[in-house]
Design a protein that fits this description.
This protein has about 500 residues and is α/β, with parallel strands linked by helices. It has 20 helices and 11 strands.
């Protein structure tokens, strides 16, 4: 428990404020307490501080407070805690889960002992001002069922069921937590400003479907999304690539990282340009300076654990399995989650390549079942904790031709063979690329459905084709976007 508490406040500039805030939120939602009274006092102060200031305190702030109130034992305990090495991301969540599992074991023992007492002698319990006697097997079974929720509830404290009409106190506490949480309502950002400001990212328990025709940058958007999540937001994620092999995805992600702004001076010194060209990596044709840049800067940086980047788990289909279903996907995802609890998002590239549980004759029935199952997985992942699920969807040639006649504008009817996409998806977006946009280094994004937020207006993003990097452009007309896109190679991103 010392390490859990130590990891909720900073003790030096190397401690990332954002990661430590996530630790404090995870510990708060777990409902764990501390056996040592000084730890409880420190934890109460950390929670109050986060509620008021929306970031965690540092050790100096804690010392200053407890010195002012002359709590010497707490100061001594704080010194002990600062000796411990803090943990973040998956390391912290894994430790937290192990402590919660210890609590579950204790609670199961207590519940079963109490149930035995109810069967043998009966137990008197208080319900408000009244008392009620529980006696016999039926009461014992009901007691076990009532207490089971606190045993199977996930780390986040997510409720699996309850009676809304008698759950007002819990509801108000939840609101207060959200009100004081600077990350409330924020999901997994794409890294594209117009999309993120409007939709607030892909959220836990939701299904986001992104559609495009062949060559419409579906996979490229997914890889950019996962890259941004790992490098800029420091979340882990899983990308199921059902049509590209692992090595191809890996090459693209390293090429993307070569365009990172932190390498601007190095690129300029070596004369590399804006990024390393993916095709040159693929074909082993890098110029000497580009090779030096890749080997000595790009790869070491992305692999440097001190940067605290999130992990990008790439999964491809099992070569020994002809049919890959959502159940297979979920099993592999939950196995990865046990090893890396910092995973926040799962992407399927793409839904049309997945098989349904049943043997359906029509493509429509098969795709509809896949989308329904993906939505269920988003809501029930890890015993009801939930997770953000992004499903890529390939639009048919007929849908592309219809959109072409309307100025490159899709609608939900263009998601051929999958009317379930409109029902099950919380968000549906689409990408449009034609010859004119491709020559202008641009892609257009549009929002076809948003359940909880107003849809964003169509916007253009820039594409750095050599490394497949998609980046934000300012709000602009098509003509302005073409001008900006034509100048992509002239300066730094």
């Amino acid at each position: 428990m010392k390490v859990l508490l130590r990891s909720t406040f900073r003790d030096g500039p190397a401690d990332d404020a954002g990661l430590f805030l996530r630790n404090a939120q995870a510990l708060r939602d777990s409902g764990l307490g501390f056996d040592i009274s000084e730890d409880s006092v420190i934890w109460a102060y950390v929670q109050d501080f986060v509620s008021q200031h929306q970031h965690v305190p540092d050790a100096g702030t804690l010392r200053g407070h407890f010195e002012r109130v002359s709590q010497i034992p707490v100061l001594d305990r704080l010194d002990v805690l600062c000796v411990e090495k803090a943990r973040t991301q998956g390391d912290y969540l894994q430790l937290l889960e192990s402590r919660i599992e210890d609590r579950r074991i204790r609670v199961v023992g207590e519940v079963l002992r109490e149930a035995a007492r109810i069967v043998d002698t009966g137990v008197t319990i208080k319900e408000g001002r009244e008392e009620r006697i529980l006696r016999g097997p039926a009461h014992a079974v009901r007691y076990v069922l009532d207490r089971s929720h606190e045993i199977i509830t996930p780390v986040t404290g997510q409720r699996l069921s309850g009676d809304v009409t008698s759950d007002g106190d819990s509801f108000l506490k939840e609101y207060e937590r959200v009100e004081s949480d600077p990350l409330a309502g924020i999901g997994q950002f794409t890294g594209l400003r117009q999309m993120d400001e409007t939709l607030k990212g892909a959220k836990r328990g939701e299904l986001w479907t992104h559609a495009a025709f062949t060559g419409g940058l579906k996979s490229t958007l997914a890889m950019n999304w996962h890259y941004n999540q790992a490098v800029y937001y420091r979340h882990s994620s899983i990308l199921f690539s059902l049509e590209m092999p692992y090595r191809q995805v890996r090459r693209i992600l390293y090429a993307m990282h070569s365009a990172h702004e932190k390498f601007a001076d190095v690129r300029r010194t070596l004369g590399v340009g804006k990024s390393v060209d993916y095709s040159h990596i693929r074909d082993g044709e890098l110029e000497p300076n580009a090779r030096k840049f890749l080997f000595e800067h790009v790869v070491p940086d992305l692999n440097d654990s001190s940067n605290q980047y999130g992990h990008i788990h790439i999964e491809v289909t099992d070569p020994d399995k002809s049919d890959f279903t959502v159940n297979d996907l979920r099993t592999r995802s939950e196995l990865l989650y046990t090893k890396d609890p910092a995973i926040q998002m799962i992407t399927v590239d793409h839904a049309g390549l997945m098989q349904s549980r049943g043997n359906h004759r029509s493509t429509t029935e098969r795709l509809n079942e896949v989308l329904r199952d993906l939505k269920r997985m988003a809501m029930s992942f890890n015993r009801g904790m939930g997770i953000a699920v992004v499903a890529l969807f390939q639009i048919s040639r007929e849908g592309y031709k219809a959109a072409e006649k309307s100025g490159g504008r899709y609608n939900l009817t263009h998601l051929s063979y999958a009317n379930e996409a409109e029902r099950s998806s919380d968000i549906v977006t689409a990408g449009w690329v034609d010859t004119e946009l491709r020559e202008s280094n641009l892609v257009k994004f549009q929002c076809l459905k948003s359940r909880d937020n107003a849809p964003f207006a169509d916007f253009y993003s820039g594409v750095l084709w050599p490394c497949r990097r998609i980046f934000t452009t300012e709000d602009m007309t098509m003509q302005q976007a073409q001008t900006a896109g034509a100048e992509i190679d002239l300066g730094e991103l």
